[in-house]
Amino acid sequence: MIYLILSILSSTVIFVTFKLFDRFKINRFHAIVVNYMVAASCGVIAYDGVVIPGEIIIKDWFLYTVALGMLFIVIFNLMAITTQRSGLSVVSVATKMSLVIPIVFGLVYYKESLGILKLTGIILALFAVYFASLKTKKGLKIDKRNLIYPLLVFLGSGIIDTSLKYLEDTHVAENEVAIFSSTIFAAAAVVGVLTLCFQAFRGKFIFQWKNVLGGLFLGIPNYFSVYFLVHALRSDILESSGIFTVNNVAIVMTSTLVGIWLFKEKLMSKNWLGIFLAVISILLVTLNSW
Questions:
Q1: Cβ within 8 Å of residue 2, ≥6 positions away
Q2: Neighbouring residues of 74: CB distance < 8 A, sequence distance ≥ 6
Q3: Of 28, 148, 179, 282, which is the most exposed, with the fewest CB atoms less than 10 Å away?
Q4: Cα distance from N-terminal residue to C-terminal residue, the chain
Q5: pLDDT beyond 90 at 38
Q6: How many domains does the chain have?
């Protein structure tokens, strides 16, 4: 349970960091690239062994981590486009609703259990994510022409979570979790640096130290959110479908509460309903395993 709690807390710190980005006018993409470099470095430091690039390249999971790293960057850009065209609430809902994909994968591929408590908890979790993420009284409004972007965010986020579960179960040894996580971030960092080089070539890159600092503060919790999630998936406290349900819903709930506490955000009755449903869904999913 401790790994799951630490993963949730790490992801909540990521939320706080992104909020501070807005306050200090930090370029998100530039900070994200630095963040991937920092996260990759954390994995190298945490790895209990000598990092030999030649040995990492021949690992069964190496090509998968490269693909995941590239997907990280793609999804980030899609999230930015979605935020610009449809709003932050749409991005939040699309990202967290993607928990459906790894849940279905766990139920079908791993033949995980689906009792009435767990099913009810999963359904309530989806409602919790929706209501907690709403920022306007009118709900979500998406132009049909822009519908493709949140759909791609939904699919991409779900594929990332599902891939993490599959890879840690089939390819990654117990002592390789740190370097496995590090390699994913390193691949994302390489793609990000190449993108920045292209921006610089076109004269659109402006270096600012605050972006580097922002990336440093983001990279550490970002690494541990993945590291602890992988360990949580390896534990016996819940099946993967339960882990992803509790993880995603708890992140939404704690982020919302932190927003009230630190940033004095005002919540609507729908948001409070989302928090209430989140608590109930977590209880139902965890009770199902007892």
A1: none
A2: 156
A3: 148
A4: 13
A5: yes
A6: 1
Stated as kind and residue range, the H or E segment containing 83 is helix 62-86
What residue type is 149 in one-letter code?
Y
- Tokens 């600092």 correspond to 213
pLDDT tens column, 180-233: 999 999 999 999 999 999 989 998 889 999 999 999 999 999 999 999 999 999
Percentages helix, strand, coil for the chain (3-state, rounded to 5) are 80, 0, 20
Closest alpha carbon to 90 in 117, 48, 129: 129
Q: Dmax over Cα atoms in the chain, in whole Å?
A: 59
Mean per-residue pLDDT for 152-168?
93
CA 275/CA 278 separation, integer angstroms: 5
Residue 114 token pair = 């689906």
Q: Looking at this protein, which amino acid is placed at residue 119? A: L
Residue 52 C-alpha from the chain's centroid: 28
pTM of the model: 0.89
Helix (H, G, I), strand (E, B) or coil at 264: coil
Cβ neighbours for 211, distance < 8 A, ≥ 6 positions apart: 26, 27, 30, 31, 34
DSSP string spanning 25-50? T--HHHHHHHHHHHHHHHHHHH-SS-
> HSE on the CB side for 121, CA within 13 Å?
27
